[in-house]
Amino acid sequence: MSLLVVGAASAQTRVTGTVTDESGHPLMGVTVIVVGTNTGAITNLQGQYSIVAKPGNTLEFQYLGMVSERKTVGGGITSIDVSLKEDSARVDEVVVVGYGTMKRASITGAVSQIDGKELLKAPMGNVTNMLGGRVAGVVALQQSGQPGSDGASILVRGSGAKYIVDGVARDFSQIDPNDIESVSVLKDASSAAIYGMDASAVIIVTTKRGKAAPAKISYTGTFGLSQNAVMLEMLDGPGYAYWYNKAREMDGDTPIFTQRQIDMMLNGDPSDGWGNTNWYEKTFGTGYNQSHNLNVTGGNERIKYFTSIGYFDQEGNVKNFSFDRINIRSNIEAKIAKNWTMAVDLAGRVQRSNRPGFSGDPADWNNIAQQAMRAHPYVPE
Q1: Where does residue 299 fall: left (phi above 0), alpha (psi -120 to 50 degrees), or beta otherwise?
Q2: Residues 6 or more apart from 144 whose CB is under 8 A from it?
Q3: Minimal CA–CA distance to 70: which of 79, 78, 83, 61?
Q4: Would you say residue 329 has pLDDT above 80?
Q5: Which of 32, 260, 332, 333 has the fewest CB neighbours in a 10 Å radius?
Q6: Are 225 and 245 in contact (CB under 8 A)?
Q7: Are strands 202-207 and 180-186 parallel, antiparallel or unpaired?
Q8: 0.70 cut: is pTM over it?
Q9: How far is CA 314 from CA 224, 283, 325, in A?
Q10: Distance, CA of 175 to CA of 349 (rounded, Å)
């Protein structure tokens, strides 16, 4: 007796076609992928592509600034032409550039923009720490974790940038993130030239303004904890004495610590000068930061307003380091006449920083070292 098994395998088909825009012009560089697989292709100068797929597979056509399109490969189909439409939501997006705004479709320079809502996704009080990794070409280097001095240095394409807040050159690190509408980064000379020859790159911060709408009261609050990512495990006093003596013995030297000194480390009496305190554990703990913001916005066709008050409090991982800040802002616009609008922007802050006699800011370390050397000069024995 014999058994005959007949199996049908779905044959692969080479699908070709042309991708164009709405005007019929070929698009070069369109990505064509078989959904659910690693198979892909890119259109050539004439907008043509060639890809291998099975009947029933779905082809997806992707191009920057265009709405993605999907087509299903049917039995016997070997050619699929696609016309992609512009992504109107992306093209019509308004971007802050120079002393005005432009639609993204009209921008020729290298400009990136991040919405203020993105800055609120992490409980940070310093805006500079929120830009790193969120904008292409922008690097944020944080050199200190001291509360109040933990701002990052911003590099745009490897060089420093000029900061502009609502049309005025000023620092923006201590602005309440809840007050920010958007942050634009002008990354090349053509887009930043309007701000002068010293502006190889410019970071523009635009704060929120009122709208013609009923009054709206909003509250935002965040809370975060901070700890050392790695806590070193240190030897206690007797353990250190033992291994220090052992190392000297292996080198042929006499031990330094005596048994009497080791006993004094364990007697619980620090007055004899031989304690057993874990200073690493005493120094580092759990820090926290909290922020609260209350704002009111609204207006009509004649007058619009945005008023905000914010509070930020930060306790460091190292004891006795803390920072708190109060931000106040009021942006008011009044339409005096048909072609005359007056704007009054008021902003201020009160901040307080607590720290011991020694700073955690690297910029102060050299001065501290010099002062210590003058106070306690080295005298050879």
Answers
A1: left
A2: 150, 360, 361, 362
A3: 61
A4: yes
A5: 260
A6: no
A7: antiparallel
A8: no
A9: 9, 17, 9
A10: 8
CB 184 within 8 A of CB 111: yes
Taking Cα atoms as reference points, which of 99, 95, 132, 128 lies closest to residue 110?
95
d(CA 345, CA 330): 6
Instruction: Specify which of 3-7, 32-36, 97-101, 233-237 reaches the highest per-range mean pLDDT.
Output: 32-36
pLDDT in tens, 59-68: 999 887 678 8
Contact predicate 335/341, CB 8 Å: yes
Helix (H, G, I), strand (E, B) or coil at 362: helix
329/308 Cα distance (integer angstroms): 5
Q: What is the rounded CA–CA span in Å between residue 66 and residue 86?
A: 4
Decide: 171 and 347 in contact? Cβ < 8 Å. no
Helix (H, G, I), strand (E, B) or coil at 205: strand
Domains within the chain, CATH numbers bracketed = 13-87 (2.60.40.4130), 90-207 (2.170.130.10), 237-277 (no CATH)
Q: How far apart are CA 286 and CA 227, in angstroms?
A: 5
Residues in the chain: 381
User: How far apart are the C-alpha atoms of 204 and 230, rounded to whole Å?
Assistant: 37
Average pLDDT, the chain: 81
**Would you state the structure tokens that stand for residue 337, as one six-digit string?**
């006449």
Q: Around 306, how many Cα atoms within 13 Å sit in the side-chain half-sphere?
A: 17
- Report the SS3 class of residue 244: helix
